[in-house]
Amino acid sequence: MGKKIMQKPSAIFCFLLLITATFFASAEPFSVGRVKASEGTLVSGFLDVPAGTDAGSKIPITVIHGATHGPVLALLAGIHGYEYPPITALQSMRTEIDPALLRGTVILVHVANLPSFLGRTIYYSPVDGKNLNRMFPGDPEGTLSQRIAHQITTEVIDQADYLIDLHAGDGNEALRPYVYMPVTGDAGFDQKIKGLAVAFGLDQIAIDTGPQHASGPSLFADQTALVRGIPAITTETGKSGSNDPHWSELAKSGVWNVLRHLRMVSGVEVPNLDITWLTDYQVVKSPASGIFQPATKEGSMVTKGALLGVLVDFFGNEITQVRAPFSGVINYVISTPPVNKDEPVAMMSKIQEQ
Ligand SMILES: [Zn+2]
User: Fold this and answer.
1) Per-residue pLDDT averaged across 325-348, rounded?
2) Residue 132 Cα, ligand 1 centroid: separation in angstroms?
């Protein structure tokens, strides 16, 4: 009898413990580094990048932890610090996404590459001269760009279910907006990636069959997500260092439609009915350092052999004429004079036949 009496409360006690544990487990804050957001709240702060072989840095982030459980969407801006529209777009989204109405969690990385942003550098960090979007998955023992990549990989990408890496034409790139849509060969996975790419809403989508099949480090933020089984796209909205609201609004409308697509917010996904699919994209590189004089514009259709621009030396003498490697569309063309050997002067893609 005494034994029986002891058993009953014990069973109830265990049940209560389980319920309590489940309740607290589901109410756990979502943490990115020291930034912790409880369910239904928004918290901003910094992700620390510790000092190493060079000085440390920090990454301004916001965690919006929705009131109901759902997917984790990571949004990266400012991997290239001179690409402003995505940075402006995420600042605006921070005030617009209501955590009480959000299903799931959004991680906003406001300025991934603060040294480049404050140093006003294109492509490369002013600290170590490295391109952050070639440093993934990063290295905690490496130089600053490698350590930034490591923090973003381990604290942000590893926790994400979906990722959008938001870019624009850099300070020297006149760019027509497009999305890079990686294709991995895994049909089910590729369908999820395509869902993001189409939902982002831009009318040109570059089918990206390239780097995800290479061996070695993932190099790019989107590839870092893909190799972890996380659907990811890279978007390009804006050009030439402009922070015109038109470009940040384009990025924002894309993110909002992805949120609808993932059912993280209410509302019906706006279908993208007018897509030009691009293939075989190629970055045309400069054969020498000098001054590039563009002869084409972003978005132009050109035929194979068309003049893209003229490279001249520092006295104005012609070094070479740069011509289109094939017929297609100009995704971007360099719009400011300086160019280093092996840097891009333009990117072109072929238009896929319907
Ligand atoms: Zn970029």
Assistant:
1) 98
2) 9
| pLDDT value of position 19 | 45
The tokens for 287 are: 């054969």
> pLDDT grade, residue 272 (50/70/90)?
very high
The answer to whether residues 225 and 325 belong to one domain is: no
351: closest CA among 272, 274, 273, 281? Answer: 281
Q: How many whole angstroms separate alpha carbon 320 and alpha carbon 345?
A: 12
User: What spacing in Å lies between the alpha carbon of 324 and ligand 1's midpoint?
Assistant: 23
Q: Is residue 328 part of a domain?
A: yes
Residue 11 reports pLDDT greater than 70 = no
DSSP letters of 4-52? HHHHHHHHHHHHHHHHHHHHHHHTPPEEETTEEE-TTEEEEEEEEE--S
Q: How far is the CA of 237 from the centre of ligand 1 (A)?
A: 10
The residue out of 252, 274, 296 marking a domain boundary is 274
Q: pLDDT of 155-193, one tens digit each? A: 999 999 999 999 999 999 999 999 999 999 999 999 999
Place of tokens 């369910």: 39
CA of 25 to the centre of ligand 1 (A): 38
Measure the CA–CA gap between 191 and 146, rounded to whole angstroms: 31
For residue 169, how far is its CA from the centre of ligand 1 (angstroms)?
7
Please, which pLDDT band fits residue 10 given cuts at 50, 70 and 90?
low
**Distance between Cα 135 and ligand 1 center (Å):** 13
Please state at what angle helix 84-96 crosses helix 245-261, rounded to 10 degrees.
50
> Is the pLDDT reported for residue 25 higher than 60?
no
| Separation of alpha carbons 254 and 195, rounded Å | 12
Final residue in a domain of this structure, among 232, 249, 274: 274
- Both 187 and 329 in a single domain? no
* Range of the structural domain that residue 105 is part of: 27-274
Per-residue confidence (pLDDT) for residue 123, from 0 to 100: 97
141 inside domain: yes
